[in-house]
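R.M. (postdoc): so does anyone remember the format we settled on? I'll just put the structure tokens first.
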């Protein structure tokens, strides 16, 4: 039961059934339990409803809300997103060039600019040529981009958000390997998300067979400059996960 996926809708049904309250009241309780924030009057009403309920059935509320903390979403929203993801995945698998050409025209995400460009390059799209054609209409952009070829890889990445992808080979110098239960890494930052206590960083490294690998690294929250491009360090596998999750807790790291 603890591994059962409970949607917001399911939790509302369970709370309403166990406590014998209308669904709008059950939804209010669900939101308060989920966020851990209560108005005094709502908490008092909830406690009264709990006293009237069958004690043996209250466990179903606890189980439902435990699942909600793992995944909280409306069922209708989940289905609509699932349909969208399925269609996008189908297009990416069967029509990769068309998929990436369309993505490059419309993408806005938490990933850095180079990620989408590099993935498109892996499919054989000459992304730099496409970018240069787009800049033909802007004199300022052409002038700014005129020195692009003269810059180092790091300067290109910092100043433009991508590098000159003449080939699909991933940049040299990145790595990821294990030694004595520790994992050593050096990769290009693909995305950074900040939480209350940690920084969730996705880095990308090039493996020996040429395949890129995206790895999730959790580090203590520190001040970071917006133009950092590389994360280097070492860490251990996050507790409770297996290597297939690629989620590591770093205790020694450096942003470049």
């Amino acid at each position: 039961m603890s591994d059962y996926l409970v949607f917001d809708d399911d939790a509302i049904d369970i709370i309403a059934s166990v406590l014998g309250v209308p669904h709008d009241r059950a939804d209010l309780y669900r939101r308060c339990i989920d966020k851990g924030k209560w108005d005094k009057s709502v908490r008092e009403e909830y406690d009264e409803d709990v006293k009237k309920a069958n004690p043996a059935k209250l466990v179903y509320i606890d189980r439902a809300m435990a699942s909600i903390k793992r995944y909280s979403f409306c069922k209708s929203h989940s289905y609509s997103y699932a349909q969208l993801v399925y269609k996008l995945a189908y297009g990416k698998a069967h029509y990769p060039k068309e998929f990436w050409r369309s993505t490059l025209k419309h993408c806005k995400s938490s990933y850095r600019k180079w990620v989408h460009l590099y993935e498109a390059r892996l499919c054989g799209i000459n992304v730099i040529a496409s970018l240069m054609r787009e800049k033909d209409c802007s004199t300022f952009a052409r002038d700014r981009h005129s020195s692009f070829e003269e810059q180092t890889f790091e300067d290109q990445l910092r100043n433009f958000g991508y590098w000159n992808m003449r080939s699909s080979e991933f940049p040299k110098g990145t790595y990821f390997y294990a030694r004595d239960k520790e994992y050593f890494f050096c990769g290009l930052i693909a995305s950074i998300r900040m939480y209350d206590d940690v920084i969730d960083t996705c880095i990308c490294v090039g493996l020996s067979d040429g395949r890129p690998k995206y790895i999730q690294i959790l580090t203590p929250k520190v001040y970071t400059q917006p133009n950092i491009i590389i994360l280097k360090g070492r860490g251990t596998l996050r507790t409770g996960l297996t290597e297939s999750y690629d989620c590591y807790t770093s205790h020694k790291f450096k942003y470049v």
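R.M.: ...and that's the designed sequence above, right after the tokens. Also worth knowing: The longest strand covers residues 182-194. The CA atoms of residues 172 and 206 lie 8 Å apart.
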